[in-house]
Every structure is written in structure tokens, then in C-alpha cells.
Amino acid sequence: MFDLTGKSALVTGASGGIGASIARALHAQGAAVALSGTRTAPLEALAAELGERAFVVPGNLSEAAATEQLFKDAEAALGKVDILVNNAGLTRDQIAMRMKDEDWQAVLDVNLTAAFRLSRASMRGMMKRRWGRIVNITSVVGVTGNPGQANYAASKAGLIGMSKALAAELASRNITVNCVAPGFITTAMTDALNDEQKQKLLPAIPAGRMGEPGEIAAGVVYLASEEAAYVTGQTLHVNGGMAMI
Amino acid sequence: MSDIAERVKKIVVDHLGVEESKVVENASFIDDLGADSLDTVELVMAFEEEFGVEIPDDAAEKILSVKDAIDFIKANAPA
Fold this sequence. Notes:
The complex is a heterodimer. By secondary structure, chain A is an alpha/beta fold. Chain A is built from nine helices and seven strands, in the order βαβαβαβαβααβαααβ. Chain A has a seven-stranded parallel β-sheet with strand order 3-2-1-4-5-6-7, with helices on both faces. Chain B has helices spanning 2-16, 37-51, 57-60, 66-76. Chain B starts with a helix and ends with a helix. The interface between A and B is small, with 7 and 4 residues.
């Protein structure tokens, strides 16, 4: 099950914990992967670890032209993009009353607008081949909200709405568009939380622990697979039960 | 030049799965031939490929009928 031999995937944010784990998992199922991110060194290290079928395509998602170019580079390296994983994301946390316009815009640009641009760029080939998978990595806070994250929560909720619209547009062409919504996962982003914050967090998670990046990657592999062809417009929540939606 | 018209009609027939007799020059893709908006995008992509011509979005939006497609290609396709 979930064999991805012969498929090609572009993963953004592949230098981060969850993105790297997604790239490893897709690759392990047989897919060729293009690894995108702003920091080249960890991408090169990951590509070296994966060996064959792995390519580095650096790119800056905060800018339109660079995002379009990134997709072209990925297509050139892979030959085609069957699977697009919009995983890149950043946070600029601040209570709304203190949040600057640029902090709002920077988060929306990378988390939501770049995901739209890459999705749009990928559709042409997917429509021609009558096969495609777009998986957007959103977040539990896109559904529940979180103080200090008006920008981040808006961007992640936006991904869910966008995915549903794209899913409706593309379903007849055998292209599915879904989201995976992580809860609290052990990554650099959550390492920034102090012990007190973590102690408050854990009682709210029925599983009693934080999640692992591989547990997100497993959901992405499923949604990218042939077996998930009839699943579209959905959000798969992977959060240890902290929000049951 | 009639060759262009024949090739355009063939693409339309193949793509939309409609009877050749219905693909007359004045036929509208959406109103007469049952295309949806995604079909019209795919037709434009197919025309681009067949004739080696780039059809920008603003021009593509105006290609609504078989005749529109033939006229655009006649005016823009490389000889």
C-alpha cells in the first residue's frame, strides 16, 4: 500500500523538522523529491542522506517571481510534479494590539499566498496527466485559534478554505487537495516554548505527549497515495486528541 | 489555412467527446458543446501544444468558440 514509485514530489520547508520528515517518508515510498527551503545547508544534508531521487531547489516564498521560479526549478529537476506539499510556514507571534502590518503580511505571504501560487503552477501538469495530489500543511490553531497568533491562525484557516475550493475545481481531473493539521509536534518551532508553557499544554492533550514529525509525514503519505484517490477537500487532524473536530 | 480549422476541430472533438457534426465554427465551447470552465482551460493548453503558440490569459479568456480559436491561431501561430 501507499507505493509512490514513479511519482515526483515538491516539498517546501524541507529544512524544518516536519518538512524533512515528510520528504523522507515520501522518498521511502519510492517518490523522487525536490527539497525546497531558504537554508541550503540542511537541504543539501538531507539530499545527501536520501541519495538518489533527491534534489535541492532553494527558493524564497515571500516573493512572487521567486516562487514561480522555484516551481520551474522543481519541474526541471524532477521532470514533473505529481505531488505538491505546501509545508513551508513561519510565525511572527504577537498579540493583535501589538501586531505590526509587516508581521501580518509576512506570515500570510509565505504560509498562504505562496501555497496558492505553487498550487496554481502545479495544476497545469497535473491536469494534463490526469493525476495530482496537493497536500497543505495547516495547523490545529487554524481551526481553534490561539492568542498571539492572529496572523498564523488566519493563514492556516485560509489554507483549509483554499484547499476546499481547489478540491472542488480539480476533483474531476483526478487531482485531490487536502490538508494535514498538526497539533503540538516536537520541532524547532515548539522547542521555543518554555517548560512552563509545555506543562500547561500537555494536560490538554489526551495522548499525554507531543507528536513526532513522522506522525505528520504518515498522514501526508496516505493523502499522496493512489489509495486516497477518493479523499479530497479534507483536513486530517493529527494532534493526539487535543482538538476533536 | 483550412488545415488549422480541421486541426482545431479535431482537438475539440477529441477533448470534449462531442460529435464532429456539432463542432461548427460558430459553436460556443460552453453553451453549445457542453464544456465547463476547466475544459476551456484544457482546450487552450491543447491548442498551445498543437500549434506551438503561447496563448496569454487575457487572450485565452476571449476564446469562447471554435471560430475564436481558429482566428487566434491563424493570427498568431508560427508559419
